Amino acid sequence: MSGATGDPDLAAGVRRRWQQGVAWARDYAWIARAQVAASLRRQSATPTSGAGAPVLLLPGIYETWPVMGTLARALHAAGHPVHTVPALGLNHRPLEASAQHAAAQLTELDLRGVVLVAHSKGGLIGKLLLTHPEVGPRVAGLVAVNTPFAGSVYARWFPARSVRALSPRDPHVLALARDVAAHARIWSVHARFDPHVPGGSELAGAVNVRLPLDGHFRLLDDPRLHAAVVEAVARLAAPGQGPAGT
């Protein structure tokens, strides 16, 4: 009789599903702790000193920038001044409204040659900024972490309307997916297994970096993700060294 012990492929599949289930649970535990910590402590300003290219953080839906705190510190340690968009709040507004808030912050701070570093929904906001008629020329590129560029099928069944707006069927998501002009200025850094974006974050025409990590949130705290994002920022900020030249 054949079973998991007698069929190597079946055994490997069962083991991988178990690993993904554990990763999913750890992912939720991590974001729960991170969100509680962010809500309990007073938000300090990001470190805005440094001679490197400025960075603007764009967190995901229902996230504030401290969820990306260790990544922000890694970017600052690499010499980049790090900025945020306080007007995003919990980032539950429609994409266009969120992009307008980010555009206003870029203009107010007079940032130029800025690299957008985003997580999840923040990457969709960042993509809108790349083609924004006023601030687009100020942006050197976008580093998006686990962004649902084609939407997420799970969003369709979520009770909150702001999350359902990230469905692959949403007209704004569909329109943004069809706009490929900005892909040459995007680095998509993503996990090998993302429980929130089952379709993956692969983006045609962009630089795609698939990390040997599992999860949607927890990799924000991983040094391997930090190293990949720091490298991407450096490449995008260097003239002639962005995705088109790789």
Automatic annotation (TrEMBL):
<keyword id="KW-0812">Transmembrane</keyword>
<protein>
    <submittedName>
        <fullName>Putative lipase transmembrane protein</fullName>
    </submittedName>
</protein>
<keyword id="KW-0472">Membrane</keyword>
<dbReference type="InterPro" id="IPR029058">
    <property type="entry name" value="AB_hydrolase_fold"/>
</dbReference>
